[in-house]
Amino acid sequence: METSAKQTFQAGPSKAVPRQSPEVIDVDLLDDSAQYTEPGSSQHAGKSTFKLAAHSPEVSATSASSIPNARDHIVATRQSLATTTEVSVNPQYPPLDVDPVAYPLDDCPWKTTSAPYSFLAHALATLSGTRSRIAIMNVLTNALRTVIKFHPASLRSTLYLLSNTLSPPYSTVELGLGPSVLSKAIQDVSGLTASTLRRLYNSTGDPGDVAFEAKSTVRTLIPHPPLLITGVYDAMLKIANSKGTGAAKSKQAVVQKLLVAAKGEEVRYLVRTLSQNLRVGAVRTSILSALARAMVLTPPSTLELSSDSPFYVSSDQLSGIKPIAASPKKKSVDRARDDLHEKFLCAEAMVKKAYVLHPNYDHIADALVEAGLGGLPERLPLTVGVPLLPTLGSPARSLEEVYGLLGSQAFTAEFKYDGQRAQIHASRRSSGSNVVKIFSRHLEDMTDKASLQPLLSYPDVVSLVDDMLSNYERVDSFILDAEIVAVDPADGSLRSFQELSNRARRDVKLDDVKVTVSVFAFDLMYLNGDILLEKPFRLRRTLLRTVLPSWTPERMSAARLHHVQSCESSEGRESVEQFWQEAVNSRSEGLMIKLLDSGEVNENSREGKSRRKPLPATYEPDKRTAAWLKLKKDYVSGLGDSLDLVPIGAWHGNGRKAQWWSPILLAVWDPHAGKLVAVCKCMSGFSDAFYKELREKYPEDSDTCSRQPQGLYDILTGGLKPEVYFKPQEVWEIRGADVTVSPVSVAALGLVSAARGLSLRFPRFIKVREDKKIENASTPEFLANVYHSQQGKGEHGGGVDDGDLVDVDVDESEVEEQYESD
User: Is 758 helix (H, G, I), strand (E, B) or coil?
Assistant: First the structure.
């Protein structure tokens, strides 16, 4: 059994660690250890003595005799090990990466009444072993089909565990499990010392691999019931809800029980889940697409389906689909498969739309099981109190580009304020307090400060909305999009984002607010029960300005409501250009150009062909649309937009910078692969004070800076090999001269060149983006779009590629001059 466990580890997706012959441990003693206490000693001391007796190859007579029945238990364990121990291997499940049409679903693949966690671990292990998008989609689709058919009650838990989350993004539920608690739990269950675990981690770099290796030495006398998907999810909720004194001990106890019951690959993916780093290529869009496909192929048996439903496929239709040809060159006409693909696309659009309007897996799973795909719009409408994903703008390099794209179509130019984007929900109540919610651009709830995240708090904005509901008689409910900006309380002039970020972040009372803010509203998505998303921006803006006019409370330091300052294209190009200069001279970031009415634009393909493309002026959740163009004032003649990059490593500086990290290796976020991909080195824009702070934040050989990649994210560096790796934990705004093809970078590899990636020439640090998460960093596709935009305007990058950058001891101004002269 020891051999089989070791072989299983070696066959897994991560590398094995050579070890000596393991000692067999009876983990059943762990649960009882607390009750065995030596007379006159503390419970902690008794527990330590008992652990020594249980884990040591030789048990002294003194220690064993002081523990009732301990000697007999240990002797019995060793004598009966060969015949009574439980084999820590997972059940055999059918392959999940096959064509869903050919996936067998006749018999339930498990023997328990509920879906076992071993099945989900099987799916995660398969996902971890492939980079093929087709295989990933097949695995997710077939796994979800199996759960929907044989235990639909596990669907919600499955979706959360696959997405490595516990709750909707606007919920305050957070796991809150530190690495020390997890490490102690692994140590107690395995009996390995802390130094041994540390060596394992240094060899593998992954907590899941460490736990798998450590647990492979463990056997139990009493078989433990199999872990269930719902049970694992509920246990994680229990960990998240453990608060106050003794919370760490309670969390560790829950983790230990899970680890004791886990077998084989369950251990690896259980610990990766608890570490919040699954290391599989299943991103949100893939999960939603797979969920839609699973519903098309295997709808819940409780649904009454129509034979002509556009969402489902019958068994007869499935039987008529031809097997996929082994060779991709031998493609044959298969109308039945084409019809299935059309149903997939229709269902995917339905599920994704439901999520962007109502991002809650609990509600989505319930709606699908109870009402099916067709019931999603009615069951999950846009709702006050549930944030929708925001519309995103596309970068523009100049006003010439704006006019070239939009032509004579009417647009408005609005100040792009340097503040925090906020989605404000409000609903009047006939009795009691009104419903007021404020969400960040990442949908985090900034109203209730129970979150562990250091979010800004806005009790003054809540008070402002209450005043508005009291004074605007025509308004019962609304959802608006806005920017919260720090202002001077005396004259309302704009203040910097830095001042806004200095506001208190936890348990803030209204009287404690020190930084006055203005809410600059720029869009209205919902009003008095009417959903306005499909209305053109011109109408939405008119309603916003007439129904929700500007409001300034009497108290000078109170938050106030204003509409964004704007200029219409109908006023003439000269007026728009003058307005642009006002933005340049102000504290704003630049302009947002927004199409007022739906129309069409010319789009050039990579082959150079031009075609007309519809350009809606509707509100498009979670889409980066050309109907919203960002024109930032900084380096507008260089890159059209800044890049949001993640610092992932560094080199030791030279000369004056010898005691600091310089240059810094930066990465884009690849959402398809779930990896951070190195794009360039940066050595410009940093002050000495920032260098010192950076060294304090990333001290060498620490939890945040080591010789091997660490943290929750996989890292791909290509030819850019740093001397140390940072734990990815922040996003920086970076600007540069242009994007260029690179012989060493693998960022956007295949999007521009089959053999080379893209890099940023003369990158310069602007600021830390505290409002952005790692997953919101710039993507390879965004980088490629910037490159293609340059090529379309004949702005070809030149000079030395950033991959060849050497951090010589030069004056900062010399770098600036080189940057500006390029």
Answer: strand
- Three-state DSSP class for 269? helix
Q: Is 613 helix (H, G, I), strand (E, B) or coil?
A: strand
Q: Which residue has the tokens 């935009």?
A: 789
Longest dimension (CA), the chain: 96
**Residue 239 half-sphere exposure, CB side, CA atoms within 13 Å?**
25
Residue 487, classed as helix, strand or coil, is: strand
| Distance from C-alpha of 648 to C-alpha of 608, rounded to nearest angstrom | 37
Beta partners for residue 740, in sequence order: 759
Q: Give the bridge partners for 738, in sequence order.
A: 761
Is there a common fold for 1-21+87-282 and 643-821? no
In 3D space, the residue among 11, 369, 298 whose CA is nearest the CA of residue 142 turns out to be 298
Q: Where are the domains of the chain?
A: 1-21+87-282, 25-84, 284-379, 418-564, 643-821
Q: Which CATH number describes the domain made up of 418-564?
A: 3.30.470.30
Instruction: Tell me which of 366-370, 538-542, 816-820 is least confident.
Output: 816-820
d(CA 669, CA 747): 9
Whether residue 446 contacts residue 421, with contact meaning beta carbons closer than 8 Å, is answered with no
Chain centroid to CA 215: how far? Answer: 29
d(CA 316, CA 693): 66
Are 446 and 439 within 8 A, CB to CB?
yes
Tokens of 350: 């339905």
Tell me how far apart the alpha carbons of residues 511 and 116 are, in angstroms, rounded to a whole number.
52
- Alpha helix (H) ranges present in 324-457? 335-357, 361-371, 376-379, 399-406
Q: What is the pTM of this model?
A: 0.74
* Residue 785, H or E segment: helix 780-792
For range 647-663, the mean pLDDT: 88
Closest CA relative to residue 488, chosen from 393, 587, 574, 383 = 587
At 110, is the secondary structure helix, strand, or coil?
coil
pLDDT per residue as tens digits for the range 123-167: 999 999 988 889 999 999 999 999 999 999 999 999 999 999 999
Query: Measured between alpha carbons, how far is 69 from 80 in angstroms, rounded to an integer?
Result: 16
Question: Burial code of 158-188, b = ≥16 C-beta within 10 A, e = fewer?
Answer: bbbbbbbbbbbebbebbbebeeebbbbbbbb
Report yes or no: 146 and 299 within 8 Å, Cβ to Cβ: no
Beta-carbon count within 10 A of 349 CB? 12
DSSP string, 498-516: HHHHTS--SS--GGG--S-
3-state secondary structure 315-359: HHHHHCCCCCCCCCCCCCCCHHHHHHHHHHHHHHHHHHHHHHHCC
Q: Spell out where 683-768 has E strands.
A: 705-706, 714-716, 724-726, 732-735, 738-742, 757-761, 764-768
- Selected from 1.10.940.10, 2.40.50.140, 3.40.50.720, 3.30.565.10, the CATH number assigned to the domain covering 643-821 reads 2.40.50.140
**Residue in 273, 188, 171, 281 with CA at minimum distance from that of residue 232:** 273
Instruction: Enter the tokens of residue 507.
Output: 């348990």
DSSP state letter for 642: -
Cβ-based neighbour number of residue 193 at 10 Å: 11
Give Cβ neighbours of residue 209 (< 8 Å, ≥ 6 apart). 12, 14, 15, 17, 200, 268
Tell me the CATH number of domain 1-21+87-282, given options 3.30.420.40, 1.10.3260.10, 3.40.50.450, 3.40.50.150. Answer: 1.10.3260.10
Residue 551 DSSP one-character state? B
User: At residue 204, what are phi and psi to the nearest 5 degrees?
Assistant: -100, -35
Catalytic residues: 416
Structure tokens at 239: 């960990």
Structure tokens at 646: 């993640």
- Rg of the chain (C-alpha set): 29
pLDDT, one tens digit per residue, over 575-620 is 999 999 899 888 888 999 999 999 988 776 656 667 788 999 999 9
- The residue with tokens 């500007």 is 550
- Dihedral sign (CA 779, 784, 787, 789): negative
